[in-house]
Each structure stands twice: as C-alpha cells, then as structure tokens.
Amino acid sequence: MSSPRSDRTAAVAPAVAVLLVAVVIGALVGTWPPFVAVESGSMTPAVERGDLVVVTATDRAPWGDLAAATDPDAPERLGGAGDVVVYAVPGAGGRPVFHRLAFHVDAGEDWTERADQDLLSGDCAELTTCPAPYDGYVTHGDANELYDQSAGIAPVVREEWIAGKALFAVPNLGWARVGVDAAAARYGGVATAVVVVGIAGLAGGVGALVVGRVRHGKRR
To answer: Which spans are transmembrane here (predicted)?
Structure first.
C-alpha cells in the first residue's frame, strides 16, 4: 500500500524535473528565463505564434557577440542571416519584441541609405528615428512590411536593451505561457496565479491518484 508521502512525491516530481531542466538550461545559456514564448506572427514562417524559443545571453560563448543580417559571415538564425533578439525599450510600457537585427548604425548616420528601400515608409527626413540619435541597431520582423524603426514599433535599439538572442525554436510549446500572459493581462496577475496554482494542484492530485492505482494494481 502506498504511503501519502510517496503519493505527494509522485505528484510534484514532474514539476521538479521541469524546474531542474530550466535551471540547467539557464546556466548553460547565461540568461533567465532561458525561454521566450512567441506571441505574434511577425517572425513567420521560421517561428510561429505559440512556439517556445531558447535564448542565450548576447555575449555567451560559444555563440559569440551580436551579429546583424548584413554583417560578414553572419550566422544563420531561425530561417535567416543575423541574430534574432529579444529587446525592450525602457519606459515604453510595451511587451518585449522578438525580431531580427537588420544592421548596425552609428550615431548621426542617415541609415536609410543602407536600408532595403522596400522596408521603409519614407526617407530620413520623414522618420523620427533618422538620423540615428546614437549607436544601435535597426531591427525587423521577418514577416513585417517595414523595419521596426520605420513602422513606429521602436527607436534605434541600443545594445543594452537587448536581453538575449535566439538559439532555436520548439513548435507549440509556448502556448501555455501565451495563455497565462493573456489571462494576466485581462484578469490580473493575482487571479491568474490562483487559477494556475489550482490547475497545477488538481493535475498533481490526479497524477498521484493514477500512480497510486497503478501501484496498487501491480501489488494485487
């Protein structure tokens, strides 16, 4: 007959295993959390909404420093040349952006001269992000019609705003995170946390019940 303690251990073991895997991956890639759940289709077709992306620190060996799409010998990342990064504009209040580094710009540069003209909404005089106010990056979602700096998504992206860069994506594993974030935005973080904890407890209880019955059946 199984003991209550062993049943509790069986219930929490999967969660502990997932946490340990996340900690190990975080130690390897040098950033936390080491995963990003993709919430939009701006990086299709290589990365779809609901995919889970493993990210690393921008200076983590052996993946090297940041590389833009136009850099010589730029690495292939998620279906294209150059690093795909997670960045957030301080004080903007929006969610982090997951887009590709198109090219690096220097302070005072008219970066539209080097840009793909099909991804611009106007010339330098018509863009608030041009000339570049400081050193940084022009960025772009692979599926978007314009650069972020031309579409008004973000100013020129400073390197210190970049939280990590993508290594690879796992299809559909990010839907749980997307769902939690959407619920938190609609109902609030506390209410969402209560529901998530309740679901986790229910799942653990069901798992412990199933494990207990299987063990009981084997001993009969």
So the answer is: 187-211
